[in-house]
Write a structure and sequence with these properties.
The chain is an all-alpha fold and about 325 residues long. The chain has one domain (about 55-320). The protein has 13 helices and no strands. The longest helix has about 45 residues, at about 290-334.
């Protein structure tokens, strides 16, 4: 090549188009997720405004902090499963993949979060099949642990409250059998073969499942505290015969059960509407219908705010880490 001649660009500009297309896809994904999330809020704005007008700032902040803790419990559940399958991710990178991907749950259809996590995980060296396996394992872990938590706490605080939902608790023994490592690995292997994918390099272990289960249980406790903070403001008189600890335990079970009922409805974005209806019904023994509706709607909005906050903070943390590495590299180069 003659000296001074400009380099020839890659054929077709693929090296440039690839990152641009990925960036555009992320923008479209985030726009759709935020748009549908806003639609959930606008649709019930009058009821939400009335409910929030009755909430004090301390209760609102406490509820949001508890939601963030609960969402982090969900992220750690997924991260533990992914690590057990052979792809341990650093905390910051894992948080970004999980929380940004989770915004897809606000888009109608149940596959948007897993598609987002698969694509972002692939950039970090995680095979798509492994990302998909971790995603689809996280939901049953949360569902099974949620039903157990709901059954224990609701039965302990108000035994009759679980009777109308006995059919849902029939899933517990089914999930207990299905979540034996041999069964899980056999199902995953069969599914990957049917999809024409390579089998997982590492099978899921009992230890990995137990670690994921522990994080899921911690998440349910945090979700219950989030709901208890709202109930304390909207029902300041409390329920006769219930101590503050009993109300908190009841809220743990009420939220877990309403979440499980909501997640069973895959066609609704993030269980929108189903979870609120279930929560109002579950709270009926301790709250009148009006306050119960306000509690359910306030809970929904705090969770949406928590999703956005976690996604924003995770993305910011990764950018700052990337900037620090670049600065460090520049310093070395000098």
């Amino acid at each position: 090549m003659i000296s001074g001649e400009p380099p020839v660009p890659p054929s077709g500009g693929r090296g440039v188009r690839g990152p641009v297309v990925k960036r555009l896809a992320r923008v479209v994904f985030l726009a759709l997720a935020l748009g549908f999330g806003a639609w959930v809020v606008v649709r019930q704005w009058d009821e939400i405004r009335d409910g929030f007008a009755r909430l004090s700032w301390p209760s609102l902040v406490l509820s949001l902090v508890a939601v963030v803790a609960a969402l982090c419990g969900g992220m750690m559940t997924w991260r533990a499963l992914l690590a057990d399958l052979g792809s341990p991710l650093p905390l910051r990178a894992g948080a970004r993949v999980f929380f940004v991907g989770q915004l897809g749950k606000y888009i109608p259809g149940s596959l948007w979060p897993v598609i987002a996590q698969m694509e972002m995980g692939r950039e970090l060296g995680v095979p798509r099949s492994r990302s998909a396996a971790a995603f689809f394992l996280t939901l049953p872990v949360q569902l099974g642990s949620g039903l157990v938590v709901a059954g224990v706490t609701l039965s302990a605080t108000l035994p009759g409250s679980v009777a109308p939902y006995a059919w849902a608790f029939l899933l517990i023994p089914v999930l207990a059998v299905a979540f034996q490592p041999r069964v899980v690995n056999a199902v995953l292997g069969f599914g990957l073969r049917r999809l024409g994918r390579e089998p997982l390099e590492r099978p899921l272990t009992r230890r990995g499942l137990l670690v994921a289960l522990g994080w899921a249980l911690a998440g349910w406790v945090a979700y219950g505290l989030h709901l208890a903070a709202i109930v304390a403001d909207l029902d300041p008189g409390g329920s006769p015969g219930f101590s503050a600890l009993s109300v908190a335990a009841f809220c743990v079970g009420a939220f877990a059960l309403s979440w499980c009922l909501g997640i069973m409805t895959f066609v609704v974005p993030a269980g929108a509407g189903v979870r609120e209806v279930a929560m109002v019904a579950v709270l009926a023994p301790v709250l009148d219908r009006g306050p119960a509706i306000a509690v359910a709607l306030c809970s929904r909005i705090v969770i949406i705010a928590g999703d956005l906050l976690c996604a924003g903070l995770a993305g910011l943390a990764v950018r700052r880490a990337g900037g620090s590495r670049k600065d460090h590299a520049s310093g070395k180069a000098v």
